[in-house]
Each structure stands twice: as C-alpha cells, then as structure tokens.
Design a protein that fits this description.
alpha/beta; Transcription Regulator spoIIAA; 5-stranded mixed beta sheet; 3 helices; about 30% helix
C-alpha cells in the first residue's frame, strides 16, 4: 500500500507519495483528490521521489489533480518523477500539465536506486 501524505502552507499543497501508485490504490484517489482540491492552493507539488511504480491508473490520478489545479489558475509541480513515470504521462498526452523538477533529496538515492540520465527522454526498449 502506498503512503500518501498531504501537507499545506498558505500558498501551496504538497503531496508526498511513497510506494506504488497504481490500480490497487484507485479506491483512495477520489478522497485524496477531494482533500487536495478543497485546500484550494495556487501551487500543488507532487513529490514522486518515493514512488516505486506507476501505471496508467496512477497517471490518471495525477492528471486529475493537475487539471483541477489548472482550472483554478494554479500550477502543478512534479518533483522527482523518474523516466518511466514521465514516459507514462507523455504517452497519456499530459506531460505539459506539469512543471517537472528533477530533485530528490532522499528515498530513491538512499535506497540505492540511481535515476537514469535524461529523465525527460523516452526510455529505450
């Protein structure tokens, strides 16, 4: 089960995700989305540094959050998504909904996971 933590400041909401963001988590997505949207902050930061796997269901969840933020005039930052996650969003045609930050100060590096160079590029088969 993924751990999803929501925190907020006067101007932003941060969603920190650890674990798999996939079909198994989908029943939790509407409640989490409602909480994030209810905070009504201009900036949404989605910290993906701890995400171990994301499928199209997880991507749809992130797209829903970014759409909601954009419809209110806000912005969504995707922090620490790896090449695989960015590829899923790109295939969905939704990568332009996010400002991508390639910064992780914890988790993947500490666990020995090395992020591939050129995170924005399409992974080779």
């Amino acid at each position: 089960m993924a751990m999803i933590e929501i925190s907020s400041s006067p101007t932003s909401t941060t969603l920190v995700i650890d674990g798999d963001l996939d079909l198994a988590e989908r029943d939790r997505f509407p409640e989490i989305a409602a909480r994030v949207v209810g905070l009504r902050r201009q900036l949404l930061v989605i910290d993906m540094c701890g995400v171990t796997f994301m499928d199209s269901t997880g991507a749809a969840f992130l797209i829903t959050l970014a759409d909601s933020s954009r419809s209110r005039g806000g912005a969504t930052v995707l922090r620490g998504a790896d090449a695989r996650d960015l590829f899923v969003l790109e295939v969905c045609g939704a990568l332009d909904l996010f400002r991508v930050e390639d910064t992780c100060s914890h988790t993947k590096q500490e666990s020995g996971f090395q992020r591939p160079a050129g995170t924005g590029s399409t992974p080779s088969a």
